[in-house]
Amino acid sequence: MQQRNRGSILEPVESAKQSFCDVSALEAGHIALADEMFITNAVPGKVTTAPSLSYLIRHSDNGQTVVFDLGIRKDWENYPPIVVERVKKTYPVNIPQDAAESLVKGGISPSDITYVCLSHCHFDHIGDTRPFTNSIFLVGGACQSLFTPGYPADPKASFASDLLPAGRTTYFNTGDWKPIGPFPRSLDFFGDGSLYIIDAPGHLAGHINILARTSADGGWVYLAGDSAHHWNLVTLESAIATGHPGHVHNCAHENQELAEEHILRINALMKIPRVRVLLAHDEPFYSKNKDGPSFWPGKIPSL
User: What Pfam families does UniProt report for this protein, alphabetically (predicted)?
Assistant: First the structure.
């Protein structure tokens, strides 16, 4: 393991042989998010048109690729009926280009992706899994509870039972994972310190994040999924909003207390030099970088 871990401080070991990852943003649709659903002290009535980002991760040495999240599927009307109604009533979407199309446009086929890692199984992250015909799917093990029985066996279920391909899905057991930086549970996925799967509890069963090393000498990017839906949460300028009628739970998270604890860990991570944090619905990042070199076939610059 190519780092020393002291409490909440991540200290990379500099080595010319250290493996790392190139990370590229992928267009994967847009979603309208009412700020009042997610943050306290929101501007009344303000709706943010946010991206639902995917990311292509390429290992520097072994040639393997990981796509983290798949955004929104273009034919969203084919989600389970309860999800379709939720989109119509609460979360309007627009998908000019989905994750698979973004990959092809940049010169790689979905069938050539080694792994697809889903932060969690909400509709705006699962996209369309069908084009990824040869990929191993990686998900938090706790998400299995969402598919018992799933749709259509349960016509009111939010999660389609055929989402994750049988025989090509790895369900992580986070119980024996090791600490890294401020996070109590992580998996050194390639075994070389280049990419860590992070247990990110609170939002939905099985929610995971990715911490990827972006240079041999100590740059990092943290892909936070839905740990927070607005940057004011990560900076601690706002708290998680509660009680909105559009929520399935009391707030945007299944377990508010665990979500708040994880947000504090991300806030601590941001204070470490050369760490970039990106949210799945990172409107500031998207507005600054759309159509630019941070999107595939370009890559996000390492800090």
Answer: Lactamase_B (PF00753)
C-alpha 274: how far from its chain's center?
Answer: 20
Cα-based distances in Å from 214 to 24, 211, 250: 11, 9, 37
Residue 16: band (very low, low, confident or very high) from pLDDT cuts 50, 70, 90: low
**Whole-number pLDDT of residue 2:** 39
Element housing 10 (H / E): strand 9-12
pLDDT tier at 17, thresholds 50, 70, 90: confident
pTM flag (> 0.85): yes
Closest CA to 52 of 139, 119, 125: 125
| Correct CATH for 3-289 of 3.40.30.10, 3.40.50.261, 3.60.15.10, 3.40.50.300 | 3.60.15.10
Q: Are 187 and 196 in contact (CB under 8 A)?
A: yes
CA distance 117 to 201: 16
Domain boundaries, the chain: 3-289
Tokens of 300: 């996000």
List alpha helices for the chain, DSSP H: 81-89, 99-106, 123-126, 231-234, 256-270, 283-289
Instruction: Judge whether residue 27 has pLDDT over 90.
Output: yes
Tens digit of each residue's pLDDT (9 = 90 or more) over 99-127: 999 999 999 999 999 999 999 999 999 99
What CA–CA distance (Å, rounded) separates 187 from 196? 5
Peptide bond into 149 cis (omega under 30): yes
